[in-house]
Amino acid sequence: MVNPIMLRGMMGLGDNIYQRAIVREVAKARPVYLITAWPQLYADLPIWPLRVASRLRTQAKNMMRDGLAWAAWPRSRIPEIRINYVSRPKVSILEALGASVGLQPDALTFDLPSFGKQSQKPYIVIRPATIRTEWLATGRNPDPEYLALAADKLRDFFQIISIADLAPGEEWALEPLPYADQTFHAGELTIEETLSLVEGAAGVVGGVGWLVPAAIAYRTPMLLIFGGWGFYNGPERIFDSRIDASNVRSLLPAEFCQCRDQGHACDKRIPNIGAEIDRWLVDLVASREVAMASGSRDRMVSGNGMSL
Prior knowledge:
Elements: E1 5-8, H1 13-27, E2 32-35, E3 47-50, H2 57-63, E4 80-82, H3 93-100, E5 123-126, E6 130-132, H4 144-154, E7 159-163, E8 171-173, E9 182-184, H5 191-200, E10 203-206, H6 211-218, E11 222-225, H7 230-233, H8 235-238, E12 248-251, H9 273-288
Parallel strand pairs: 1-2, 1-4, 2-3, 5-7, 5-10, 7-9, 10-11, 11-12
Antiparallel strand pairs: 6-8
């Protein structure tokens, strides 16, 4: 019998969506214990998720939920490898994660388990630009005015659902907030409900973050509006030749800042942003065969519940 190994995974949601592809490859060769905050993302893989204490707000909240399937910690000491990013220029996230475990397969399966698509009129999921005290990455965010502009252009053809997990003094959204028919900004949704919305959406809109790998995994059309901090968040980092990201339409600033400073005042201006959004909208409406007349659209009733 092959001896098991312990992988000390990264804690971010987006990190876990990326590392799932690498963990899958490791698990093909030997039993895997995985330290993670998001065991739901691995429910269909032959791994044993392990829980640890965390001071990170959303991670701790997820780990404390009832009913999650955690494995018991192994009684004997086993080899441990830390999954992390190897900081090298022009190396993709997946290449970096693979390098951390000594693995670079020629092909990768990049997916997520399905938590059940939402069945309703076509809708768009949008992520507002936010700042959180745990990780002050102001440079990465897109210009919030661009997100608001996208929502205004999309609202005549789709329901708009805005999702975030805001908390006073810990995470807040940048103005102007995009229009939304329904808003979930207080962390009301579980990760299963959140990913279900992404999987079933006609499209998603946002900046670099967990929404990108989630959209790729579910093949959901995405309008990706870049901000700055490009050394760590440029296309060559977040995409990889081994995964199909053709469902993502990327809009980059004309002078995309290649800085390494997460708080840098990057130049985020995107020329002809309105026309670029219009082109994505036309393609999206055509692919979904959505009625072009705004009168055919029924608005969603806002509220605290998830009225989907």
